[in-house]
Automatic annotation (TrEMBL), chain A:
Origin organism lineage: Eukaryota, Fungi, Dikarya, Basidiomycota, Agaricomycotina
Domain Proteasome alpha-type subunits: 5-27
MF (Gene Ontology): hydrolase activity
CDD domains: proteasome_alpha_type_4 (cd03752)
Main location: cytoplasm
Protein name: Proteasome subunit alpha type
Species of origin: Neolentinus lepideus HHB14362 ss-1
Gene3D superfamilies given in the database record: Glutamine Phosphoribosylpyrophosphate, subunit 1, domain 1
Domain of life: Eukaryota
Family: Belongs to the peptidase T1A family.
UniProtKB/TrEMBL annotation, chain B:
Alphabetical keyword list: Cytoplasm, Nucleus, Proteasome
UniProt keyword annotation of Cytoplasm present: yes
Described purpose of this protein according to its UniProt entry: Component of the proteasome, a multicatalytic proteinase complex which is characterized by its ability to cleave peptides with Arg, Phe, Tyr, Leu, and Glu adjacent to the leaving group at neutral or slightly basic pH. The proteasome has an ATP-dependent proteolytic activity.
Coiled-coil stretches noted in the UniProt entry, renumbered to this chain: none
One Pfam family named in its UniProt record: Proteasome
Predominant cellular place of this UniProt entry's protein: cytoplasm
Organism listed in the record: Neolentinus lepideus HHB14362 ss-1
Name of the molecule in the record: Proteasome subunit beta
Automatic annotation (TrEMBL), chain C:
GO biological process: proteasomal protein catabolic process
Keywords from the named record: Cytoplasm, Nucleus, Proteasome
A matching Pfam family: Proteasome
Similarity comment text for this entry: Belongs to the peptidase T1B family.
Subcellular location: Cytoplasm; Nucleus
Annotated source species: Neolentinus lepideus HHB14362 ss-1
Subunit structure as annotated in this protein's UniProt entry: Component of the proteasome complex.
PANTHER family for this protein: PROTEASOME SUBUNIT ALPHA/BETA
GO cellular component, as recorded: cytoplasm; nucleus; proteasome core complex, beta-subunit complex
PROSITE patterns: PROTEASOME_BETA_1, PROTEASOME_BETA_2
Main location: cytoplasm
Role noted for this protein: Component of the proteasome, a multicatalytic proteinase complex which is characterized by its ability to cleave peptides with Arg, Phe, Tyr, Leu, and Glu adjacent to the leaving group at neutral or slightly basic pH. The proteasome has an ATP-dependent proteolytic activity.
Protein's UniProt name: Proteasome subunit beta
Length: 263, 205, 194
């Protein structure tokens, strides 16, 4: 029966459902986990990478660029970073759109785009793709971590239907239920960035399939205010920095593990 | 070019470059503001100064920022001074028959294959004809005077602090003989790892 | 002839504009309000070509209001100034440019700072501690150079404004008779009897 309402474009089924959107959401719940946490003096994002393997050429991520491997966490503007879950090709197109929208705002108003407005810009487009004929919706959910003078640090989530909402801590992708209940238990309102980094790493280590965390499976980013300039400063960690951070929190690979592997 | 007044200058040093402007914004002979900077950062190692019609200075500053940011996003690297100079040139030439009334001056450091940083300066006319110089470039209502003082003071291979002194003396003494420029100056000395920015007082009249 | 003045003080911006609407040598109206409120903390004094002034000011007013309705918060003064400047700069290179000069005074509630922008019909913008448009500027700017204090309270600010207006009335052949004075601070916008 469902065939009649989802084979071509997004039209309502007799029960009032839009199957294509539900399928898009389903695609996302299989994607790598992305976790965001809002602290009082910053926002933290972490993401699980799915495309790995030692034959994958990662030389571009090691140096150059602004950090990150370009799979899960992106810099949208100097004051906003985003974590994406879903179809990577769709995500790339949305990231490109977001960056252009942010630059257009900077051009007309001479200020960084407010975080919620950027989320709205993307959601306007996502919503359009659920309504106009012949096209499928974007199979992507995003977490936006950003700063603007109106509401200071913020964390938003948007889904393929074009809905968006603000969060203190949230998670998208595989195992998001587990992660969200962990976050609900552990979240405190006056959490600092340092504590938030620890919490995010702990939750990620519990929700991800692999036993040990490492830079080949994880992307990590923090948005804070620069101490001197008081302007937002986005830091997307490079692989070596992620490994160092994991060591610091006792979540990285142990030395004996590598020894056993080589034995 | 004489409507709002103002002057800019850039100079080459040893492994560094300097660029500066005066701070006056006028409405013909009437001074409207004494804090109007005409030099803007493009990347950590490139600055652009613009003299001429102030509305076009602001418009082009915003336009260059937009284009450079889009370049950085698409290329995933920062623009090099030479590419930026050509971006400026083509942006100006787009308006060949109804030009923006500004004369840009650019200063930056470019990274060689060996990883060293080499100085780069350039200037252009209002329709984007580039002028690459090895020593110094000037523009604005005091340009004739600046040419004269710079010709006398500049020498090759100046260290950062000596370059700062040379460009400061050139700019302050140049604009002192120009009614349309003055009210102090701002100087940026661009080094591979940092930029030294200093605001100078002049005759303030 | 048209005159407008503005100055910043400790936590406020004062804006004054004359109230005459003239055509050639004839006064058509003597109680015209040439200072618009663009938001809860933003004032704009406009002068220039009659017709262009009201058309342009209303266009700006409506668009700034639209932004506030869409986004639930108003544009901050620096962003509003940049947007208005762009509108004039684009207009300058259009078939029929607006010839409108503006003084834009605002109080930024997100960082508690007053700011004043001088904008002319070409789209030239400058952030300044005090500003004037019209023939009054030839007298008032030098007075403001001498007497302006960015830390002055409202009474002291009004006293400086009084000096400017008195000087213009005394020395300018075609001086306007009456002014409207408005102030913007942390509490919003008020008109001051002058």
């Amino acid at each position: 029966m469902a065939r009649r309402y989802d084979s071509r474009t997004t039209i309502f089924s007799p029960e009032g459902r839009l199957y294509q959107i539900e399928y898009a959401m389903e695609a996302i719940s299989h994607a790598g986990t992305v976790l965001g946490l809002l602290a009082k003096d910053g926002v933290v994002l972490a993401a699980e990478k799915k495309v790995t393997g030692k034959l994958l050429d990662m030389s571009g991520a090691k140096e150059g660029g602004y950090g990150g491997s370009g799979e899960k966490i992106f810099l949208l503007n100097s004051n906003v970073i985003a974590g994406v879950a879903g179809i990577t090709a769709d995500a790339n197109s949305l990231v490109n759109y977001a960056r252009t929208a942010a630059q257009r705002h900077l051009f007309t108003y001479n200020e960084d785009i407010p975080v919620e407005m950027l989320a709205q810009r993307l959601c306007d487009m996502k919503q359009g793709y659920t309504q106009f004929g012949g096209l499928r919706p974007f199979g992507v959910s995003l977490l936006y971590a950003g700063y603007d003078p109106h509401y200071e640090f913020q964390l938003y989530h948007s889904d393929p239907s074009g809905n968006y909402s603000g969060w203190k801590a949230t998670c998208i992708g595989a195992n998001n239920g587990t992660a969200q209940s962990l976050l609900k238990q552990e979240y405190k309102d006056d959490i600092t960035v340092e504590e938030a980094i620890g919490l995010v790493l702990r939750v990620m280590s519990k929700t991800m399939d692999s036993t040990t965390l490492g830079s080949e499976k994880l992307e990590f980013a923090v948005l804070t205010l620069d101490r001197n300039t008081k302007l937002p400063k986005a830091k997307i960690y490079k692989p070596a920095e992620i490994d160092a951070l994991l060591q610091q929190h006792d979540l990285g690979k142990k030395d004996e593990d590598t020894e056993m592997g080589s034995a | 070019m004489e409507y709002n007044g103002g002057s800019v200058i850039a100079m080459v040093g040893k492994g560094c470059v300097a660029i500066g402007s005066d701070l006056r914004l006028g409405n013909q002979a009437l001074t409207v503001a004494t804090n109007f900077e005409k030099v803007f950062p493009v990347t950590d190692r490139i600055y652009i100064g613009m003299s001429g019609l102030a509305t076009d200075v602001a418009t082009l500053r915003e336009q260059f920022r937009f284009r450079v940011n889009m370049y950085t996003i698409k290329e995933e690297r920062e623009i090099e001074p030479e590419s930026f100079a050509h971006l400026v040139s083509s942006t100006l030439y787009e308006r060949r028959f109804g030009p923006y009334f500004i004369e840009p001056v650019m200063a930056g450091l470019w990274k060689t294959q060996a990883g060293e940083y080499k100085p780069y300066i350039a200037a252009a006319d209002l329709i984007g004809c580039l002028n690459f110089a090895k020593d110094f470039v000037v523009a604005g209502t005091a340009s004739e005077k600046l040419f004269g003082v710079a010709e006398g003071l500049w020498e090759p291979d100046l260290e950062p602090e000596d370059l700062f002194e040379t460009i400061s003396q050139t700019l302050l003494n140049g604009v002192d003989r120009d009614a349309y420029s003055g009210w102090g100056a701002v100087i940026h000395v661009i080094l591979p790892d940092k930029v030294i920015t200093r605001t100078l007082k002049g005759r303030m009249d | 002839m048209e005159c407008s003045f503005a100055l910043t003080g400790k936590g406020y911006v004062l804006i004054a504009a004359d109230t005459t609407a003239a055509r050639s040598i004839v006064k058509m109206k003597i109680d015209e309000d040439k200072i618009k409120s663009l938001g809860p903390h933003l004032l704009m004094a406009y002068s220039g070509e009659p017709g262009d002034t009201t058309q342009f000011a209303e266009y700006i007013e409506r668009n700034i209001r639209l932004y506030q309705i869409r986004n639930l918060y108003p544009l901050r003064p620096p962003s509003a100034a940049s947007w208005i400047r762009r509108a004039l700069a684009d207009s300058l290179r259009s078939r029929k440019p607006y010839s409108v000069n503006l003084l834009l005074g605002g109080y930024d509630t997100s960082n508690h700072t007053p700011s004043l922008y001088w904008i002319d019909y070409l789209g030239t913008q400058a952030e300044v501690p005090f500003a004037c448009h019209g023939y009054g500027s030839y007298f008032a700017l030098s007075l403001l150079d001498r007497y302006h204090d960015p830390e002055a309270n409202l009474e002291e600010g009004l006293a400086v404004l009084r000096r400017c207006i008195d000087e213009v009335s005394k020395r300018l052949v075609v001086s306007p008779g009456k002014y409207r004075v408005k102030v913007v601070d942390k509490d919003g916008i008020r008109e001051i009897e002058f």
